[in-house]
Amino acid sequence: AKEIRDITRVPLMVTGGFRTTDGMNAALARGETDMIGIARPACIDPDYATKVLQGNAVSNVVEDMNFRLGPTRFLGPHSPIGIVRSLNAIGKQSWNYAQIFAMADGLDVDHDLGLLKALKIYTENEKKQTTAINRANPIASDT
């Protein structure tokens, strides 16, 4: 963020990389960023923003989660099989989206949600949204 701040004065938001509340506060105090995005930690702990604003020490809750397809190395994010590594990465992102969808519907986050089920939830939502957009704007769907 510091390198970007050195070349621009537009408001700058950093959305990742912070591991502690102290790190966030230090970047803000040094003027290296104007805002800090915390969507992923909030997907795990919906009270994350409140804890940060109250000055409570907050660790990187994202790293505390064990995001992986399965318990073995071959099913984890460092699998020697490329498609398994990809499914872990896409599944992790889908897990975050599924939590955002749930919170938007007034539901609690589901820490037990598996990556494959999260991927299914995410792709079904994307399909539903795409269908709705195409119905609302048929000309755009023909391009």
Structure description:
This protein is an all-alpha fold. The chain has two domains: 1-65, no CATH class; 66-143, no CATH class. It is built from eight helices and two strands, in the order αβαβαααααα. The protein has helices spanning 2-7, 21-29, 39-44, 48-53, 61-64, 82-104, 115-136, 138-141, and strands spanning 13-14, 35-36. Strands 1-2 form a two-stranded parallel ribbon. Helix 6 (82-104) crosses helix 7 (115-136). The longest helix is centred in the middle third of the chain and has 23 residues, at 82-104.
Present the secondary structure layout.
Elements: H1 2-7, E1 13-14, H2 21-29, E2 35-36, H3 39-44, H4 48-53, H5 61-64, H6 82-104, H7 115-136, H8 138-141
Report how far apart the termini are. 38 Å
State the helicity in percent bands: 55-70%
Percentage of residues in strands: under 5%
Q: Please give the order of strands in the largest beta sheet.
A: 1-2
Q: Let me know the average pLDDT.
A: 88
Structural class assignment: mainly alpha
Task: Please summarize what this structure is.
The chain is mostly helical and 143 residues long. The chain is built from eight helices and two strands.
